């Protein structure tokens, strides 16, 4: 029997997941067994960078492509920050259609025995804002203290996120519209404006939302000031660009009350270290030759006489072909920009064979993904100067303390002698269980109304101390730092040096260029073309003094007031940045453009030869960019899983009857 070679290009989430499932997946039927990897077969994994997977495969930066955990002094026992993707939405394991959460990520974390490190990644219910030089907390925004915007219908007396609700109510309300994952897929294709709108509105009842740009719709409904308030106060500029309005409705509905976000105390990158180790172990057990090739990229790919031919290039000379090989199946586990680089190699030359990536229909579908540049800057300090408990507390401390009753909290309270009848009632009250409270008085009041009794002083102390949680904020500004996320002292070794971390700037879209010009300092000229600056592959880069001072200046305005001097913020111990607008990613995440059938894109782009008449090539595209969960690791896993299910006969990792990995064609 001829030995097979499977080649995966990209060692991020989708690439690692594909390799893992090719090795541990079970086939649906006898016909699929011929495609399964067996002893003597070859599994290739190409990595344009060199991720630090393990001692045998060290690298320049943490694993995970656009996930990148950075530890203080690069010591994994010390405090860390996430300079890329940083969390997941936990799935409770129920298979009903209404259950929320990232089902594949949750399952992978459990299968790799990482759930023991899974902890809440809670957001504050009373975040701090600094908008148009006014510092305020969400709970302070009222008719007597409005936000500094001239929003119609007194919209500036409510949360800036209310703008999303106003627009979404044009088609989706609390009682109407899609509720399940499958229903949202149908909405992407058929969702329409259902509300009666004034004749003065540009858009009207019955208009298909997939054919409307979200910025266009928001501006039409909210006006200039209403749009500005929502755009500034939401923190993510990427959420309010002119992307597919139907998809935007769902994406901006992601941060709903009750959603439980989690992360790993070992850093989010550790999931990919564990995946790599599992791949190595499984390959050895099965007798499959696993070949990992760092510092190597896919240069070009063609199908010639039914055989997939591909060329490679090295990190040292990434634009020139260094080697040519063949494979039985190829996975392009990479984002849109990296795929386009591969296509460019054969776009302007004559060649034989089928050039899948450069076919007009394939190019059309590839362009459905909008590149969204993003930028993150992390800082470590020897003190949590942003907290109310600091030696010199700022006038506007970070709102990082909250209270949340979970099943684990109820268990701890029971062990402390809290009345069993109280615990039973609290556990059955969905308005309390897993609901964050910003104020102690609000939690105590809610519990007392539930049990219809007064808590004793001792019981109050037990409840508050057990339910107290640190949140990550964030604080939101209209300054170039945009969002500030507070990681604090999260070191695995709590007996060591106390170091406190913050994501001092989490920004995207046009704000990335503000920081890019500071990367060079004040006395440096350009030396490397933008197209050759592979900083994201190398790892977090030390910020120059001018960037540090600019960060301190804006952090001071956020926490000490708009006229505060930068010196109010102490000198950091370390500052590093990740510029995700740089190659090869050229984006931190992606979004779908308007005027596309998103469901058809998701189905066809996985195996792009499906878009070419009478063509069939085992070249696959997987990853977050063309998924049903853009900007999330879940999207990368779901596209990879769907390819293996539909084209290789591998049984789904979980029951997908109520959880389509990608949208079916409507």
Defining key terms:
alpha+beta, 666 residues, FAD/NAD(P)-binding domain, five-stranded parallel β-sheet, 19 helices
CATH superfamily of the largest domain: FAD/NAD(P)-binding domain
Q: Helix/strand/pairing class, anyone?
A: alpha+beta
Largest sheet: 8 strands, mixed
Q: Globular, elongated, flat, extended or rod-shaped: what is the shape?
A: globular
Low-confidence stretches: none
Structure report:
It comes from Mucilaginibacter frigoritolerans. This is Monoamine oxidase. The mean pLDDT is 95. The protein folds into 3 domains: 5-68 and 267-371 and 594-648, FAD/NAD(P)-binding domain, CATH 3.50.50.60; 143-254; 374-579, no CATH class. The two termini are 41 Å apart. A hairpin with a 2-residue loop joins β11 and β12 (307-314). With 666 residues, it is of the alpha+beta class. An 8-stranded mixed sheet has the order 8-7-19-20-21-16-23-22, sandwiched between helices. A 5-stranded parallel sheet has the order 10-2-1-14-25.
């Amino acid at each position: 029997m001829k030995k097979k070679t499977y080649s995966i290009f990209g060692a991020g989430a989708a690439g690692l997941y594909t390799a893992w499932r090719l090795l541990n997946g079970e086939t649906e039927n006898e016909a699929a067994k011929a495609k399964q990897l067996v002893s003597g077969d070859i599994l290739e994994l190409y990595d344009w960078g060199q991720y630090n997977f393990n001692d045998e495969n060290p690298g320049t930066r943490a694993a995970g492509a656009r996930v990148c955990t950075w530890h203080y002094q690069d010591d994994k026992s010390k405090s860390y920050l996430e300079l890329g993707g940083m969390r997941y939405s936990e799935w409770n394991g129920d298979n009903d259609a209404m259950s929320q959460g990232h089902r594949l990520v949750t399952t992978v974390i459990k299968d790799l025995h990482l759930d023991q490190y899974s902890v809440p990644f809670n957001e504050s219910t009373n975040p701090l804002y600094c908008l148009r030089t006014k510092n305020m907390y969400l709970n302070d925004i009222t008719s007597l203290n409005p936000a500094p915007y001239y929003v119609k219908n007194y919209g500036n007396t409510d949360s800036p996120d209310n703008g999303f609700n106003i627009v979404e109510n044009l088609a989706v309300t609390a009682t109407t519209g899609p509720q399940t994952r499958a229903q949202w897929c149908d909405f992407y294709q058929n969702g329409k404006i259902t509300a009666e709108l004034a004749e003065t509105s540009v858009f009207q009842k019955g208009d298909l939302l997939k054919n409307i740009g979200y910025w266009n719709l928001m501006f039409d409904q909210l006006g200039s000031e209403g749009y500005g308030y929502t755009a500034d106060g939401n923190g993510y500029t990427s959420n309010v660009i002119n992307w597919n309005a139907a998809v935007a409705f769902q994406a901006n509905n992601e941060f709903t009350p009750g959603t439980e976000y989690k992360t790993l105390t070992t850093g989010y990158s550790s999931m990919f270290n564990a995946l790599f180790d599992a791949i190595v172990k499984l390959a050895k057990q099965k007798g499959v030759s696993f070949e990992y090739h760092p510092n190597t990229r896919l240069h070009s790919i063609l199908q010639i006489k039914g055989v997939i031919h591909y060329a490679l290039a090295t990190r040292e000379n990434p634009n020139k072909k260094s080697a040519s090989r063949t494979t039985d199946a190829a996975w392009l586990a990479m984002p849109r920009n990296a795929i386009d680089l591969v296509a460019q190699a054969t776009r302007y030359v004559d060649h034989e064979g089928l050039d899948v990536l450069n076919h007009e229909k394939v190019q059309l579908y590839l362009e459905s993904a909008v590149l969204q540049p993003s930028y993150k800057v992390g800082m470590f300090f020897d003190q949590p100067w942003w907290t109310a408990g600091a030696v010199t507390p700022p006038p506007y401390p970070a709102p990082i303390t909250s209270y949340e009753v979970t099943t684990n909290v109820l268990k701890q309270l029971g062990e402390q002698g809290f009345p069993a009848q109280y615990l039973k009632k609290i556990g059955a009250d969905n308005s309390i269980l897993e609901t964050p409270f910003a104020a102690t008085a609000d939690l105590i009041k809610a519990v007392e109304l539930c049990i219809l009794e007064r808590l004793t002083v001792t019981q109050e102390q037990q409840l508050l101390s057990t339910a107290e949680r640190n949140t990550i904020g964030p604080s939101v500004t209209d300054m170039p730092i945009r969002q500030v996320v507070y990681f604090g002292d999260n070191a695995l070794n709590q007996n060591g040096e106390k170091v406190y971390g913050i994501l001092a700037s989490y920004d995207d879209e046009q704000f990335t260029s503000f920081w890019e010009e500071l990367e060079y300092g004040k006395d440096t000229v350009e030396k490397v073309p933008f197209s050759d600056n592979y900083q994201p592959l190398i790892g977090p880069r030390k910020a120059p003094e001018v960037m540090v001072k600019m960060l301190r200046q804006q952090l001071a305005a956020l926490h000490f007031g708009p006229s505060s001097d930068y010196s109010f913020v102490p000198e950091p111990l370390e500052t590093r940045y990740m510029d995700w607008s740089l190659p090869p990613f050229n984006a931190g995440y992606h979004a779908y453009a308007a005027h596309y059938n998103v469901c058809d894109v998701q189905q066809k782009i996985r195996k792009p030869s499906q878009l070419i008449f009478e063509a069939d090539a085992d070249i696959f595209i997987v990853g977050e960019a063309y998924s049903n969960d853009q900007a999330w690791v879940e999207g990368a896993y779901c596209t990879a899983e769907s390819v293996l299910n539909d084209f290789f006969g591998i049984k789904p990792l979980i029951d997908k009857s109520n959880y389509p990995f990608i949208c079916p064609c409507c």
